[in-house]
Structure formats: structure tokens, C-alpha cells
């Protein structure tokens, strides 16, 4: 009889105004061992509600959302749920945007056009680390 406890998956929540991007991310990230796509949203208010409801471990979000930008969401998550890893994946890559995201509490910042794979590898690494932790 196998008494091993199955490894828990890292719950990832996707926040992007573009449904196509969310679906692509869900397909790529969902194929990673130890990653569960826990939900998705196109705006900050829906995202915050969904992130809290599913108890997400990682949030991958675009800077531009359907209701504006994600800086307030990043700040709220950083303040109320600091353990959640916040990964910004955006086309808005100017230094000022990166600095604003870092100031709001983003843990990682990636260029959607050239670092999509790097963002996916980062999620995979976080999931591996999480599974290895007791």
C-alpha cells in the first residue's frame, strides 16, 4: 500500500484582458507538473475575488487590464497576501512600468513578446520549489 501523500500543485491565477493570452498561458502552464490553473480574470476586481476564493499561490498578470492597470491589484496582494508570487507579463516594458510594478510589490517582470518562455520557466521553478518544501 502506497502511503505517500501526493504533491500539492501550485495554484496559478491568470489575469489578462486578452482571453487568447489567458488561454495560451493556461495551456502552457497547465502542462507543467505541479501547476494547477486555479482561475482567470480580465479585470482587477474579478481577479482579486477569484484569487482569494481559490487561495492562489502564483498570479501571472498583465499590466494593462480591462478596467485599467494592475498596479492597485499588485499593491493589494502585496499588502494582504504577501506570500502570493506576483509575476507581471506585459508588452508595456518601459523602465517606468517596470519600476512602478516593482514599487507595487511585483516579484517578477517579463516582456510578453520576448520573455514568455522565461515567465513559464519561472512558474515551473516556483512550483518545483513549492512541492519540495515540507
From TrEMBL:
GO biological process, one term: phosphorelay signal transduction system
Keywords: DNA-binding, Phosphoprotein, Plasmid, Transcription, Transcription regulation
Pfam family, any one: Response_reg
GO molecular function, one term: DNA binding
Species for this entry: Paraburkholderia largidicola
Record protein name field: Two-component system response regulator
4-aspartylphosphate sites (modified residues): 62
PANTHER family in alphabetical order: NITRATE_NITRITE RESPONSE REGULATOR PROTEIN NARP, TWO-COMPONENT RESPONSE REGULATOR
InterPro entries per the UniProt record, alphabetical: CheY-like_superfamily, NreC/VraR/RcsB-like_REC, Sig_transdc_resp-reg_receiver, WalR-like
Domain annotation Response regulatory: ranges: 11-127
Amino acid at each position: 500500500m502506497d502511503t505517500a501523500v501526493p504533491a500539492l500543485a501550485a495554484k496559478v491565477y491568470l489575469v489578462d484582458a486578452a482571453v487568447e493570452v489567458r488561454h495560451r498561458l493556461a495551456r502552457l502552464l497547465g502542462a507543467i507538473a505541479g501547476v494547477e490553473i486555479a482561475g482567470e480574470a480580465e479585470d482587477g476586481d474579478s481577479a482579486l475575488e477569484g484569487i482569494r476564493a481559490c487561495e492562489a499561490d502564483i498570479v501571472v498578470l498583465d499590466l494593462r487590464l480591462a478596467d485599467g492597470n494592475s498596479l492597485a491589484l499588485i499593491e493589494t496582494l502585496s499588502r494582504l497576501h504577501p506570500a502570493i508570487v506576483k509575476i507581471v507579463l506585459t508588452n508595456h516594458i518601459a523602465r517606468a512600468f517596470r519600476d512602478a510594478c516593482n514599487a507595487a510589490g511585483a516579484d517578477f517582470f517579463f516582456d510578453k513578446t520576448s520573455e514568455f518562455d522565461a515567465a513559464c520557466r519561472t512558474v515551473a521553478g516556483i512550483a518545483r520549489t513549492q512541492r519540495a518544501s515540507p
